[in-house]
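Q: Structure tokens for this one, please.
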Amino acid sequence: MKKQASSVLVALAIVLAGVLAGCGSDKGNDGAKAAAEGSSGGDAGKEITLKVGAAAVPHAEILEFIKPKLKEEGINLEIVTLDDEGQLNPALQEKQIDANYFQHVPYLDSIKEEKGYDFAVTAKVHVEPIGFYSEKLKSKEELKDGAKIGIPNNPSNEYRALVLLQQQGLIKLKDGLTTYEATPKDIADNPHKFEFVEADAATLPRALPDLDGAVINTNIVLESGIDPKSALFREDANSPYANIVVVRSGDENRDEIKKLDAALTSPDVKKFIEDKYGVAVVPAF
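A: Here is the predicted structure, written as tokens:
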């Protein structure tokens, strides 16, 4: 009897050990499964790539500055620069990028109806005060009658250049120009008989030796290596030409766009702009 009881006890022990081992195995499998699910991250841990088209200077440089901050927030910022900045709006329209940051509202307004863009502005970041530059003159008082002055030939910046010359008392534009568009034909009074040379904005720095001076956008000045402090005169900080973040309408409420805007209008970016660019770029927030 003792022998039989002993055999029964051994059998029970073996069965019990198997049951416990089975339970442990299930727990191990559950744990491995949970670890695998955790490593995949799910949607909560997934990094989002945000493509933003930008002008090379200063826009792309400012975006590079905020890249680490956005990385901490789960956003991989991909900065897209094109040789022809005019293609950044078509790229946005065609969903090649998620946003662009290179233009001001008057420029956008001048083309969006013609092109059928349905865009929204989500942030104003900085102003690049347009200025008058010369390789021949030291002050605007040296401008002689008949001087050749270069101005950008795109509608909004051409108007902007002419308004700057008007503010300096050099010309007078017709009354009632309200669409941020003007050409030399809209000059009502040109007492010094200036000759205006309309040219692609990017070519104006190279044309300076053949001109008495030119009104040039600051981003082009920076890209060309011209000292922005050398401007004979420039817009003041109250310019309406703040450079903006633009998205397709309906995307302005995307979480990653809101984070982009918050980063671009942070105190850190304000200090970065002021320290790096001085008078050439002015924060607009």
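A few notes: Confidence is low (pLDDT under 50) at residues 1-42. Residues 2-40 form the longest helix (39 residues).
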